[in-house]
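Hi there,

I know you've been waiting on this one. I reran it after we fixed the sequence typo, so this is the corrected version. Both the input and the resulting structure follow.
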Amino acid sequence: MDIPMEEKSIVEAFYQKMDEEERLADRAGCVEYTTTMAYIHKYLRPGMRIAEIGAGTGRYSLALAREGHRVEAVELVQRNIQIFQSKRKAEDDIRIFQGNAMELSFFADESMDMTLLLGPMYHLFSEEHKKKALAEAVRITRPGGILMAAYCLNEATVLQYCFGRKTIWEDMQKGLLDDNFVWRANENDAFSLVRPADIRALMKAFPAERLHLVATDGASRYLDGMLEEMDEGMFRKYLDYHFSICEREDLIGASNHVLDVLRKDCTR
């Protein structure tokens, strides 16, 4: 199954303009990256075979390979692959494939110890496509293996953009927001937005146990300027605070990004 051409074109156009490396380089991006890596490290063991689906420019894949893990990286966007390859060293144990999350036939069933979808769910809009990507991730992960899927959340867009940029009335008049303040995807969107309840509903059909649902950046994007002004000691204390609350169910929904951490069922 392939991504519809119009959706693929929108994603490619977005990453022609977006510098993913830069996005993770500021303080708020550092919180997201540090949190994601912390939860990956909870379940890493020496010599694991890891698939990163939607690997972007290789930020996570390269870091994991340089820790001694075998990494299979799949990326849709050619420009991202070119940047990824430019950073790769001869000793990095990584294979890079161009492909999409819904069709991973080049990987055998139950061949991965850990499967990461840290980008694809941002750009898949239909429930059918989301479930297909999740089904492929489950298929290639061994029983007892770890799956992680990242999502973009609805409330951050409503708060930061619709209210923050004072477009709320215009957005509602255009039908971009419904009466429950849920963003309705349109033909110009690069991102699919969900709420935590949507994530839980998506995973019900799959043989996997949820271990964590994590607000990877939490309040950080709301505090962009404040974080940049903090000295290192204050920022480290902020990270301590962030990690103390990043799994609180009453706060998760307002994060820009959330990470669903699951273990594949050994019995099904």
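Quick highlight: The first helix runs from residue 5 to 17.

Best,
R. S.
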